[in-house]
Design a protein that fits this description.
The chain has 392 residues and is α/β, with parallel strands linked by helices. It is built from 14 helices and 14 strands. The chain has two domains: 132 residues, Alpha-Beta Complex (Aspartate Aminotransferase, domain 1), CATH 3.90.1150.10; 234 residues, Type I PLP-dependent aspartate aminotransferase-like (Major domain) (Aspartate Aminotransferase, domain 2), CATH 3.40.640. The longest helix has 23 residues. It binds pyridoxal-5'-phosphate (PLP). Belongs to the class-II pyridoxal-phosphate-dependent aminotransferase family. BioF subfamily.
Length: 392
């Protein structure tokens, strides 16, 4: 216990200790924090679907009809009609033979990689991939070659170097939209490499699903290579507004996961209400309303980033609703975040190990439901606060 307290003290001393913030009331473009309304600029509820009446209605109705919980894991007695219907819908959405639900994206990535890859296999992983992919790679016991962020030429060189000693399966795994940088993976180029070297391609589209592509099918649709992806992983808790995750893939892969994937097998399945709400979310995403929400989100993002870029802020290569504003050191970052909160803007500061040393940032995320004026005022506040780092 004393050792653990010392570890916490060390985190405090170096400005690296993290604390939970409690939201009162509902999730929306503004939330109540410590008794004050603040503009929410750090939610993944990009399309505002978490509070959408159609999702709430679907969740309430399914809960009334089928119960609050599923009562068991999927292979025992916890596979309910709502799960199967959602899986069929997700497979159709991604254009694959089948799909499988998971309780979270974290469980999905760790479970999928562990179940499908082993010691003879080789996984090529982008250096900025999500923590759950990194842990999945470790659990798989496959050999892992981490390639520089989105660097297709470097990856090609590594693959060429590995080719002569190849034994098992090869996988390229990448975030679709990178969660801390807001840029897109070069999926078309990765797909070309996968074909050339006879590898598989897995995309984690936690932040692209619902948001990118003409019909919201995600990063691969946006980049015109939906058919090239072998393993489409995505989440239901971000733009889709609920919770849980999925893999859309071939029937063989899905059937194998049903037999081998530990987080799928040994975990109580999602509540039927969550599955029903996620179906309602997909119906919105694929329809006219989804198109309108995506357009709104793009417009808010453009308003926001134009002001920051004009003021000379470093936004890395962000091209999505995830907008990093580089602040470099942890102290300055957390000070900026505190000052913004005092002004009524809730923006999280992000520090190592979530991002590399020296690349601390304010990470702002836009929502379709933000008001234009709020977005512009927030951008101006960030420019002010980041601009005078010394005081406060
Ligand atoms: C959020 C996220 C996950 C985890 O999904 P959860 O459903 O929140 O557990 C996985 N991958 C990426 C890229 C994410 O951003």
């Amino acid at each position: 216990m004393e050792d653990w307290q010392k570890e916490l003290d060390r985190l405090s001393e170096t400005g690296m200790r993290r604390f939970l913030r409690v939201i009162d009331g509902a999730q929306g473009p503004q939330v109540e924090l410590d008794g004050r309304r603040v503009l929410l600029l750090c939610s993944n509820n990009y399309l505002g679907l978490a509070g959408h009446p159609a999702l709430i209605e679907a969740m309430v109705r399914a809960t009334r009809d089928f119960g609050a919980g599923s009562g068991a894991s999927r292979l025992v007695s916890g596979t309910m009609r709502a799960h199967v219907e959602l899986e069929e819908r997700l497979a159709a959405f991604k254009g694959t033979e089948a799909a499988l639900l998971f309780n979270s994206g974290f469980a999905a990535n760790t479970g999928i990689l562990q179940a499908l890859f082993g010691p003879d296999d080789l996984i090529f992983s982008d250096e900025l991939n999500h923590a759950s992919i990194i842990d999945g790679c470790r659990l798989s016991t496959a050999r892992v070659r981490v390639y520089p962020h989105a660097d297709v030429q470097a990856l090609e060189a590594i693959m060429r170097q590995e080719a002569p000693k190849r034994r098992g399966r090869w996988l390229i795994v990448t975030d679709g939209v990178f969660s801390m940088d807001g840029d897109l993976a070069p999926l078309r180029e990765l797909a070309a490499l996968k074909r050339r070297f006879d590898a598989l391609l897995m995309v984690d589209d936690a932040h692209g699903t619902g948001v990118l592509g003409a019909t919201g099918r995600g990063t691969a649709e946006e980049l015109g290579c939906l058919q090239e992806v072998d393993l489409h992983m995505g989440t239901l808790g971000k733009a889709l507004g609920v919770c849980g995750a999925y893999l859309a893939a071939s029937r063989t892969v899905i059937d194998l996961l049903v037999n081998r994937c530990r987080p799928f097998i040994y975990s109580t399945s999602l509540p039927p209400g969550a599955a029903a709400a996620a179906q309602a979310a997909l119906a919105i995403v694929e329809g006219d309303e989804g198109r309108r929400l995506r357009r709104d989100l793009q417009r808010k993002t453009a308003l926001f980033t134009a002001i920051l870029r004009a003021a000379g802020c470093d936004l890395l290569a962000s091209s999505t609703q995830i907008v990093p504003v580089i602040t470099r050191q942890p102290d300055a970052t957390m000070r900026a975040s505190r000052r913004l909160l005092e002004e009524g803007y809730f923006v999280q500061g992000i520090r190592p190990p979530t991002v590399p040393e020296g690349l601390c940032r304010l990470r702002a995320t836009l929502m379709a439901s933000h008001a234009d004026a709020d977005v512009e005022n927030a951008a101006r506040a960030i420019v002010r606060v980041v601009g005078d780092g010394d005081d406060g």
